[in-house]
Design goal:
This protein is an alpha/beta fold. The chain contains eight helices and five strands. Helices cover 63% and strands 12% of the residues.
Length: 335
Amino acid sequence: MASSATLRREARRLGSLTSSWTVQTLTRPCQSPLPSPWLQQTEEVPSFGVRAISTQIVRNRMKSIKSIQKITKAMKMVASSKLRAIQTKAENSRGLWQPFTALLGDVPGIDVKKNVFVTVTSDKGLCGGINSTSVKISKALFKMASSPEKEARYVVLGEKGKALLQRDSKKHISLSITETQKNPLNFTQVSMIVDEILKNVEYDAIRVCFNKFQSIVSFMPTMSTVLSPEVVEKESEMGGKLGELDSYEIEGAETKGEVLQNLTEFHFVCALFNACLENACSEQGARMSAMDSSSRNAGEMLDKLTLSYNRSRQASITTELIEIISGASALQAKA
């Protein structure tokens, strides 16, 4: 009876012969007179070692998913640190526009002929649906304000809002400003943006659409209305919500129109500054939530792929053992 070492050598020789015969069979041209489509169907035989190739593909995919998971976790940490810095500024900026709202009012339902919708969005993606929400709100308000007797225009802040609005509203965009958050946002930068807007558009009412920050997982689409000096003066003379302006006395050489001009422009700067900070907070909070969900999904995919890889590897080992034992049994029977 042959020894175990001899049986193993014979099994390896048998496996090498089977492998070479399979390769020669697959590469040898077929001389059958049957039509070529039938030949293509019958000759598509899996090559030797397919199981090893599939495990290698799964291993590479697991490696790529691990790399993606590291990136998403790092992005979540970066968004968390940025949120803490911006949130303090946003809370402090609320004290700027609130006195102007108490003085000049915020009347979103006012009916004017020239409306300008300032849509505040982000320059970067991977932050959930905050940009699409701002654009949807702007489009809905734009349709309500559009008519043959009225004029409505867009002013877009942020690369993402520009890309979304250019698809079907390119002709209505008067101005688009991008890379507003490349450097830390400050009041001077927003003042320059406001000067650029006032140079390029004529308005009776400016409606700033943004996402107001509430928590890391929630934000509220909000609109802030800034009226032109002419409309403010007209509304104050007619009474209503702006009728209290006449109770204030004007000191100095400035007229009422000049005072209202300065007040409305400063109101616009304060409202836009707060809107940009609130939207930046909402962006970082949404990015934290999105990256956390992505990290969890990557972990679930890794678990499934690991299970599939282990099963495939175990099946490969079991098949090889069966082949060795079968070859050894055949040699024993022949001996």
